[in-house]
Specification:
The chain contains 14 helices and 17 strands. The protein has 519 residues and is α/β, with parallel strands linked by helices.
Length: 519
């Protein structure tokens, strides 16, 4: 709703006041009546008026005296005064205009003229109000801007990096204290300089899309977010590496760019040290790896030679021990037969250990040239055929689901299945062995499982069973060298897989291993 203006009507004659009120009522403004100069002054103490209609001839205090007092008060000094008089007198006119009157109206007053003149001053008053409101709003906005600027300057000063604000052409408009510290130069010497005096290769990643800053180019956006590494120049001419990130702001005066500049000298030194350490570490790892490979090769060759060379004297001992047993059993006194039996059994066991050790050392001797596409079903079939007599003797039943084709060494895959089957048959319980072999796809590998109903493996021994010469049960009850599962692990590792024992509910054990999918 539009604000209503106030008009002060001053006349000592009641009829005149009524006439003035009637003539001006159609303007729709607030009309305030006063019958004397003193009463008018009282209204002026608390109210502001768009115009004052003041009768010249009044008792006690005439219009001129009243106008003089009105003009003496700062609050009403600019209020328009229209004098009302019944006769023309040049002296009165001069005095009235000298006191700040804006017009004279002569009685009898024509209502239309009166309304027209007063309406002009009402509109002037409204315009004045709008100007004041605008001025107040401008002052408020200026204060907000001042506070924002103070806050922005505080943020700049609190920033850990050097912050430089400049125009698009590089002219510096503002810096923080960290900039002074970084470049050893006061801000009074930096303002109005070009930022390229500090960072010669500085350039804002300007693209056509930066004109609106709405759809920036992805490369430019990356520079804004992660910054650029450039060389900065100190006051003494020395150079050092810095990282700069940009923050653009479109203003009425054009594009303003805030550059955050961070000294990365220490970081570069650390990176160089880390690079040097990595290079040294890689060289040492390579050296150690080569030494380890040589050691492994020498160890494998030693194990092979030692095992091979041990077979001949051991075979001689075994043969003569068997001849002694055959010829002299029951003919010797005391514990001789028992001692001869110990020698024969130990010789056989030693021969088996050497044979298994040779097999273990040969696993890595076969290169990747032996890797071909191999059907795991055929490998399992060959393993079962090799163990036919053992399976039939123990009434074992071997079943399987569909087994995949993989890339591997077919001889070693047969040995893998064979060793796992022997383990399941050998460590059976009172019931005939029941063995189930399955395979399922898991991402880039196949997961195989071999489940039996034997005596099982306690969880604390799940890793120990894969060690060399590790047997968890008495050898007289469960024969074996303890190399079978160790060979299995070595075969699976050579095929870039894993092997382990799954905990099971109830009797039996489940051996699981993985093989890569065929490529």
């Amino acid at each position: 709703m539009e604000r209503r203006a106030k008009i002060l009507l001053v006349d000592d004659t009641a009829d005149n006041l009524v006439s003035l009120e009637a003539a001006l009522s159609s303007l729709g403004e607030d009309l305030v009546l006063a019958s004397s100069g003193k009463e008018a002054l009282r209204h002026l103490l608390t109210e502001d008026f768009a115009a004052i209609l003041l009768d010249v001839r009044m008792p006690e205090m005439d219009g001129f005296e009243t106008a003089e007092l009105i003009r003496s008060r700062p609050r009403s000094r600019q209020t328009p005064i229209l004098f009302l008089t019944g006769y023309k007198n040049e002296e009165h006119l001069f005095r009235g205009y000298d006191l700040g009157a804006v017009d004279f109206l002569f009685k009898p007053i024509v209502p239309e003229v009166l309304r027209s003149k007063v309406a002009v001053f009402v509109e002037l008053s409204r315009s004045n109000w709008k100007l004041k409101d605008q001025a107040n709003e401008l002052r408020r906005q200026a204060e907000v801007l001042r506070k924002a600027e103070r806050g922005f300057r505080s943020l700049l000063e609190a920033a850990p990096d050097a912050m430089v604000m400049c125009r698009e052409n590089g002219e510096i408009t503002m810096v923080n204290s960290q900039t002074e510290v970084l470049f050893h130069c006061g801000r009074d010497l930096l303002i109005s300089k070009n930022i390229r005096t500090l960072v010669p290769d500085w350039s804002f990643p300007h693209e056509s899309s930066w004109d609106t800053l709405e759809t920036p180019d992805p490369h430019a956006l990356k520079l804004l977010k992660f910054g650029r590494e450039l060389q900065a120049v100190g006051r003494d001419g020395s150079t050092f590496p810095v990282e700069i990130s940009f923050s653009p702001l479109q203003t009425d005066e054009g594009l303003v760019i805030t550059s955050a500049i961070r000294d990365i000298s220490q970081r570069k030194r650390n990176e160089e040290e880390i690079h040097q350490l990595n290079a040294n570490l890689e060289a040492r790892v390579l050296e150690r790896t080569e030494a380890l490979m040589r050691s492994n090769e020498e160890l494998q060759q030693f194990a092979y030679v030692a095992s091979h060379d041990l077979q001949e004297p051991l075979r001689t001992v075994s043969i003569y021990a068997q001849l002694l047993a055959k010829r002299y059993t029951g003919q010797l006194q005391g514990d001789a037969d028992q001692f001869i039996g110990f020698i024969v059994d130990s010789s056989r066991r030693m021969e088996q250990l050497i044979h298994d050790l040779l097999d273990f050392s040969r696993v890595d001797a076969r290169g990747t040239d032996f890797f071909v596409r191999t059907s795991c079903e055929e490998a399992l079939h060959d393993a079962v055929s090799n163990l036919r007599s053992l399976i039939d003797e123990n009434e074992a039943l071997v079943t399987h689901n569909h087994l995949p084709t993989v890339v591997g060494d077919p001889v070693q895959l047969v040995r893998l299945f064979q060793n796992l089957l022997v383990n399941s048959v050998r460590y059976c319980g009172e019931d005939p062995p029941r063995i189930r072999i399955a395979a399922e796809s898991r991402d880039a590998e196949w997961l195989f499982s071999v489940r039996d109903n034997g005596i099982g493996i306690e969880p604390q021994y799940a890793e120990k069973v894969f060690g060399i010469f590790k047997c968890l049960n008495p050898r007289d009850k469960y024969p074996g060298s303890g190399m079978g599962l160790a060979i299995c692990r070595k075969i699976v590792s050579r095929h870039e897989g894993r092997i382990w024992v799954e905990p099971t509910q109830g009797p039996g054990a489940t051996f699981c291993f993985t093989l890569p999918r065929a490529q």
